[in-house]
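Problem 12. The chain below contains 140 residues. Write out its predicted structure in token notation.
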Amino acid sequence: MNKNIVFVYGTLRKGFGNHDFLKNSKYIGNAITIYTGWLYVPDHIPFLNFDIDGYSIKGELYEVDNKILGIIDELEGHPYVYQRERHMVSSIDNPDYSLTIAYTYVYHEEMKHIYPKGIDKYNSIIITNDYKKYINRYME
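Solution.
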């Protein structure tokens, strides 16, 4: 059984509706991206776009098998809505994964057919770069 490391930053994180897809996967810990980027939020759904002028993105690391990876691909609309890419991340609380490569779902140019003005011009940026903090602010 192949194992894949996945970095999640949005609705797949603990406490959100899509986390059920990861309930039987191994939780590795909280993590941040090494490369910087921005989170954009159309309709309360986050999209990550890597950019040198951005910030490290906060999320969680999981170890998933190929079956779960395929389910996540389908959920994320890979490769048309989100694109699955390998990116360097760092676990905040698990030294075994202090620097590792993980699959990350990022904004894809094909999204322009859904958001014709472009994701970065059409919607807000999460200044905290933490989707969980963004949502909790609106839940108060």
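Discussion. Residues 69 and 82 are 13 Å apart (CA to CA). Students who got a different answer should revisit the alignment rule from Section 12.3.
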